[in-house]
Design goal:
mainly alpha, two-stranded antiparallel sheet, 80% helix, 3% strand
Length: 336
């Protein structure tokens, strides 16, 4: 009974990892590509500080999905994991994944702060929400994330596990830095701190809106950006709660003796929370389309514009259209 339960749980975990993680990867890459397209193409969004933060967050998400997520959750399902065979990819995966995750999380947090500033009764606060300030803060965030992640290049190494006898990529060689990552960076810098910022400033922004009735005073694009940022922050919070809970559990249970059944149950739970921790990075475009009617309209117009461009400049489409037109003419003049 116990053996069959263990096999079943391990099988379900593998299936979840294969199909659900693949769905998250495809949805996440497509979602963030479309977000980048929107924020770069729409003039009204280009000159808004919140859209700059969200654009950089989307770019960070793309890097995250194609490094950390791809290598940890997708490639192992196909018995292919370069991070366990290539020391270069082992170091780059950890470095790029960590830097992009920090950048994405804190840019989303800055976007939430920006919405608080825009809705503030204090004129100086509103005036501090500028494109120039957003650009400075984005560059500062990028620089901090890149520099903070450098030790991961140094200390990540390929090693053979004593329990599984398999080669894997992990931190080694510096117990102090391992403790810093385990007890501060993972639970706080990648979890509690950005989550706290988003919660606090989301509450403050909506308190400002309710108190000042600024829904009538702000432009339509500002109102919809507030809804977009808030909805995005909610999904990020869900992911961060799952990620923080997983991290705290792993730290608390690291020295616990576990049976095979317990390990199978743990693996099943950690598979689900591990995938859910990426929910805040994967569905931003779909969130924006849901909460913003104006953005939906602009996106449809943008797609029509690109389709017209392809119709005019793509030879294969032009040839297909000409063939279809000739066929239609011949059919209309065919004698009965």
């Amino acid at each position: 009974m116990s053996s069959s339960t263990i096999d079943y749980l391990n099988y379900i975990s593998k299936q979840i990892n294969l199909y659900v993680a693949s769905f998250f990867y495809i949805s996440g890459v497509l979602s963030n590509l479309l977000c980048v397209l929107i924020f770069l193409s729409m003039k009204r969004l280009k000159n808004n500080p919140a859209s700059i933060y969200l654009l950089v967050a989307s770019l960070g998400n793309l890097v995250l999905f194609n490094t950390s997520f791809l290598s940890r959750l997708i490639l192992p399902n196909f018995n292919f994991d370069p991070s366990s065979t290539s020391i270069v990819w082992c170091k780059l995966r950890q470095y790029l994944g960590h830097a992009s995750s920090l950048t994405s999380l804190f840019c989303t947090a800055w976007a939430m702060i920006d919405q608080y500033l825009l809705t503030s009764v204090n004129v100086r606060f509103r005036q501090s929400s500028t494109v120039k300030m957003a650009c400075h803060l984005v560059w500062l965030t990028l620089l901090s994330s890149v520099l903070h992640s450098i030790p991961l290049i140094i200390y990540n190494q390929l090693g053979v596990s004593r329990t599984t006898n398999m080669t894997s990529c992990s931190l080694s060689g510096n117990s102090g830095y391992q403790s810093y990552i385990a007890y501060f960076v993972t639970p706080f810098l990648l979890g509690i701190i950005p989550t706290f910022i988003m919660i606090v400033f989301a509450i403050l922004a909506y308190a400002n809106i309710n108190y000042l009735h600024q829904e009538q005073m702000r432009t339509q694009i500002q109102q919809q950006l507030t809804r977009m940022v808030t909805a995005q922050a909610i999904f990020v919070l869900i992911g961060m709660i799952a990620y923080t809970a997983q991290t705290i559990y792993s730290l608390l249970s690291a020295s616990t003796t576990k049976t095979s059944l317990y390990r199978a149950q743990e693996n099943f739970a950690l598979t689900i929370t591990g995938i859910l921790s990426y929910i805040g990075y994967a569905f931003n475009f779909y969130i924006y389309m849901t909460v913003s009617p104006s953005l939906r309209k602009q996106f449809k117009q943008l797609m029509k514009k690109y389709l017209r461009y392809l119709m005019c400049h793509c030879p294969c489409i032009m040839a297909t259209n000409r063939t279809a037109t000739v066929h239609s003419i011949n059919h209309s003049f065919r004698p009965t």
